[in-house]
Amino acid sequence: MGYAKIKLITFTFIMLMFILLSYFYVDQDVALYFIKYKQTYQNIGRRLSILGESQWYIGSAIIGMVYYSYIQRDRLYRNRFLLLLNVNLFSGVLSILFKIIIGRSRPWALEHNINAYGFLFTQNEHFTWLQRLDYQITMLLEHTTLYESMPSGHATTTAAVFTYMMILFPKKFYIWVPIACTSLVARVLANAHYVGDLLSGILLGTLATLFVYSKMKKKFENNKELKA
Predict the structure, then answer these.
(1) What angle do CA 63, 66, 69 make, to 5 degrees?
(2) pLDDT in tens, the chain (228 residues)
(3) d(C-alpha 187, C-alpha 144), whole Å
(4) Against a cut of 0.85, is the pTM above it?
(5) Residue 1 resides in a domain
(6) Could you tell me if 212 and 88 are in contact, meaning their C-beta atoms sit under 8 angstroms apart?
(7) Which of 43, 196, 191, 30 is nearest to 108 (CA)?
(8) CATH of the domain at 41
(9) Are 166 and 211 in contact (CB under 8 A)?
(10) In 3-state terms, what secondary structure has residue 210?
(11) Which residues pair with 104 in a beta bridge?
(12) Which of 43, 100, 104, 186 is 20 to 30 A from 196 (CA-CA)?
């Protein structure tokens, strides 16, 4: 097994452990704090959340691809924007699928019911597995947004774009790190996600980007052409 794969497996394992620890020891307390002081933090979080909205990156990628394909022909920049598009689409689809499968309630549910913490599949312990599955599908259809907390879509996008920028411009990390951190923290301030949701989004967005990049390497002659 190569060194790169070992690092990737180690990163994944560590992140999964942090997600698990966050669920049991961090998520609920942090959420309750920001619910208590939502008048102070919620609007700030919502405004900063724009940094993690994928439509801006998808739109920019499409415009860039069109421009460098037909107006100012440049294979390097066209492929860069193509990579950005694929990264956002792939990570976005995965995020939606995992949200549906996991079915975790949003933090704001705690404001009205302290027992709302957790996952749809584990809410009815007396149900059979088929009944739990039926219940989860029903609740997702009736209350789509409420049970789409994990992973955070904004965190997934943020991690995907951050990883993308680190591949292209690794020396500019001092720019990407604070932007990414601001985007991530915003979702907790907005009371839209638990800390564990952010961690799972980081894991998913990072892995998705690395996977897409590995599949697109042939479109670049070498790493020097890809990186600035």
Answers:
(1) 145
(2) 677 889 999 999 999 999 999 999 999 999 999 999 999 999 999 999 999 999 999 999 999 999 999 999 999 999 999 999 999 999 999 999 999 999 899 998 888 775 678 887 777 777 777 877 777 778 777 777 888 999 999 999 999 999 999 999 999 999 999 999 999 999 999 999 999 999 999 999 999 999 999 999 877 655 455 555
(3) 18
(4) yes
(5) no
(6) no
(7) 191
(8) 1.20.144
(9) no
(10) helix
(11) 119
(12) 43
Domain presence at residue 48:
yes
47 CB-near residues (< 8 Å, 6+ apart) = 186
The CA distance from 197 to 18, in Å, is 11
Q: Where are the beta strands (DSSP E) in the chain?
A: none
SS3 readout for 162-202: HHHHHHHCHHHHHHHHHHHHHHHHHHHHCCCCCHHHHHHHH
Provide the domain count of the chain: 1
Note down the domain range covering 151. 12-226
CA 228 to CA 51: how far, in whole Å?
23
Sign, CA dihedral 38-40-46-52, equals negative
Structure tokens at 177: 């790190």
**Domain for residue 183, yes or no?**
yes
Going by C-alpha positions, the residue among 61, 121, 117, 118 that lies closest to residue 86 is: 61
**At CB < 8 A and 24+ separation, what contacts does 12-18 make?**
12/203, 12/207, 15/199, 15/200, 15/202, 15/203, 16/203, 18/199
- Whether 187 and 154 have beta carbons less than 8 Å apart is answered as yes
HSE, side-chain direction, 13 A CA sphere, residue 199: 18
- The answer to whether the bond into 107 is cis (omega within 30° of 0) is no
